[in-house]
Amino acid sequence: MELDPVLLARLQFAFTISFHIIFPSFTIGLSAYIATLEVLWGATGAERYKRLAAFWTKIFAVSFGMGVVSGIVLSYQLGTNWSRFSAVAGNVIGPLAGYEVLTAFFLEATFLGILLFGGSRVPRWLHVFSAIAVAVGTTISAFWILAANSWMHTPAGHEMRGGIAYATDWLAIIFNPSFIYRFAHMLNAAFLTTGFVVLAVGARHLLANRHAEEARTMMRMALGLTAVLAPLQLFLGDQHGLNTLEHQPIKVAAMEAHWDGSKPGDFHVFAWPDEKGERNWFEISIPRGSSLILTHDPNGLFPGLKSVPPQERPPIVPVFFAFRIMLGIGFFMIAAALYGAWLMWRGTLERTRWYLYVVANTWWVGFVAVIAGWIVTETGRQPWIVHGILRTADAVSPVPGGSIATTLALFVLVYGVVFSLGIYYINRLIAKGPEDREAPGGLGHRPLAAGHRQKAVPT
Amino acid sequence: MAWDLPLIWAGIIGIAVAMYVILDGFDLGVGILFPFARSERERDQMLTSIAPFWDGNETWLVLGGGGLLAAFPRAYAAIMPALYLPVIAMLLALVFRGITFEFRTVARHKARWDIVFAAGSTLAGFCQGVILGGLIQGIKVENGEFAGGAFDWATPFAALCGLGVVAGYALLGATWMVMKTEGDIALQARAQAKAALLAVLAFMAVVSLWTPLAFPRIFERWFSLPNFLWLWPVPIVTALVAFAAWKWLDHRADGRPFLAAVVLFLLGYLGLVISTFPYLVPPTLTIWDTAAAPDSQLFMLIGTLVLLPIILGYTGFIYWLFRGKLREGEGYH
To answer: Are B76 and A103 inside 8 Å of each other by CB?
Structure first.
């Protein structure tokens, strides 16, 4: 069997980065939530905020750890599997990655240590500050990563010499044409993802008639957040789509499975794109829907897939379906958030058991939407690794297919085990719930009974 | 631009790698010593002594790799594929080591996590040594790209370096425990540190003899004149520091053994730098051959000069915050 190094390298990167993105999608929002809870506790003195902060911090710790170890894998994988990309784009991508480490990673890692383990050594204000520092760190991290990733989609501020990219304008590199749209969309997605997890946990506890006060608080806060952010995400996504049409029209064509640019585009709710036949089968469409969304004119025209040869097109099936999954979840989120907010306003939230049941069991929707969205944007960028500059196939490391197949298998195995256990442990923490009002103050899991001071050396 | 940017960056990356080796060295070292703990309570203490620091410590590894990409992308692009399997193995080992801190806390059966932690820490250290050995041995480069085989790095010398690093981290871990713990666990740590010290000295001696004999360029670097006149004190000072460490482990000093271990590490590191400078991809590519464009190096340098002191500041702060011995009742969260 011929092992194609390019395909294997792509699979490995896709797998490891999809795994990784789950964690920042959760920790960006959750760290902000914990910081908010800590500040609210400081400001109001209300015990429920303290209990909620402690509860979510334990869950955060498990999640953040998985994010860290899976993230370091990516920073080295750019070299191990994509060395030609590193050589070509290193002058641009390198400093952006470097700044991410210097401005975000050290900040998050250090202050998380204080947040988790400070205990009695740390005054209250420093504890709160640490929570805020971690939240700020995760957002700064998103900034740099999205800047670097966006440059790969809409490169700017550079010049090519001898096949190598050289930076000429750092502001243009960082604030490249697609950056602000992608950063806003991803950041909002992170908060939405966390919002739906918090909502689900609140609903779960209400259904079980446990920790009612904390559960109510969680649902109230989560609904307040998601009712605003879910509709906002539709707007941000639309703006992002319009920007993508301008700079990466073939990606949009793939998202819509729009073959013929000489006619207006229907919005296909479902279709099966036939890449060889250059047509779609089984279309269920809204006539002129895509034209309306993309050009604000039902008769508007936009480029079709047939306007470029097949080797310039991305894989259409994954991009097309991932887009629909993300959209579908997005609409679900808007509906769930607005309906829940309305129930809350009416005072009937706790009685509407079917609603609680639905949201308790859809904690995962944000994660699926985030991964789907990333598939749309990254797979949609193919065949380019840096749009218009370097093709993915020309970017891989000189490593034999056998080595990559081995490491891919190991990653799937290790991540499968780690992720399953992580979910299992987080679930256990959630089921346990926030500390009860009557229980003694938390000493942590296992008090270290060091006993009396002993001599450290023989005398 | 009158400054030698590649030289400045080589210095910064060098410092980042040294920071990593010392900081993550002691917490990987604690993991390496995990199998020798005699009770769950002792293992809890060992973990508690490093838990607040491990993530920040490991971040220096990300800075080392990311910094290499930023400042010397052609070196990064040559080295990573060349050492593909040991790098990936190291990353997977670090995954297991990293998740143990939180998973073990929530788990009902801690024993399996004890094994995972020890194995992850030991494998990570071993792989780092293999990577080091693989680098020293040299990387086959053609047209600025890696052109060798998947197992070029797999030699007895690399394995030796792997074991040497494991011993070195064990030394750092043991002396860290001498500093942070009390009672029986601290006593045992002193004994472990002495054993590790002997092992480290043995490995240093073997590597110091092997590399000049096996690699003419290294022989040339150390033993030609006038180099030798400058360099002969290095092994002498190393022996003296080792001797001091041994004495301190026998007496009351709590913090000095760790300090001596750190100095010993830095001396070994210095020796390696002396052997390889200015080759970043031995034996052919220098720091100047592989440097990023001056504009990129400068852009990163300006921020780094501002941010690095800040990072060192709050890093120093957290070590100060958790200074002294482990306190009663201190555990997780």
So the answer is: no
